[in-house]
Amino acid sequence: MLVGVGGLGVGAAAVGCGVVGVLLPTVGYRLAVPYGEPSRTTCATCGVPLRSGTAGWLARRCDRGHRLGVPWWVTASLAALAGALLGAALGAVAVLPVFLALAVLGVLLAVIDVACHRLPDSLALPALTVTPVLLGVVALTTGQWADWRRGLLGCLAVGLVLTGLVLLPGGGFGFGDAKVGALLGWYLGWLSWDTVILGLVLPWALNVPVLLALLAARRVRWRTKLPFGPALLGGALLSVLVTTG
Description:
Blueprint: H1 6-22, H2 24-31, H3 53-58, H4 72-90, H5 96-116, H6 121-142, H7 145-167, H8 175-191, H9 193-216, H10 229-244
Helix pairs in contact: 1-4, 1-5, 2-5, 4-5, 4-10, 5-10, 6-7, 6-8, 7-8, 8-9, 8-10, 9-10
């Protein structure tokens, strides 16, 4: 069992992630577009152009007052919860800030996937590129090169499994799922192979009750394809909690 960071450390992780989470709704709103389309530049409700520059990506309402994206407290709460759970599970380790950054990115990806059934390359590919560098810096300072190598293998293993599912006819998976899965594989592999395996299994266990609840509420039909990103991300977080607890 890893050493905990204590109540103060867990609180700091939660607050830090929550503060960044406040900024996510409009970013998710602008990136939640069909594949191949540029980021959103107008309000979907009234058509008014969105502000340019940084202010346009952070403003929570358009110039006519329509809210852009989900309420800020939704992303802030999810990010804060993920940060607190990771802080408590991983403890005072050098890699914790990198995991917290992934948690915030995961909230953003989940919001986008729910909105448009897509995990954009503009987020997944840069994260995949920078992750081995960030984890390499941690390994350089701590000597955890065995964890880095296992993370690389975890990335390849999860990516290959999900890519295989994407290629199956009628599977309902997209290459965005495979890319985000490979990204998560880096972090799950850093911890252990048990974490990798659970991270592959748990998403299906999470999706089943969601599907049943939506069916009971008559919000979907049996053939409806649910976005897999939230379950993939939630399963990864749960696997970390289970294997480090």
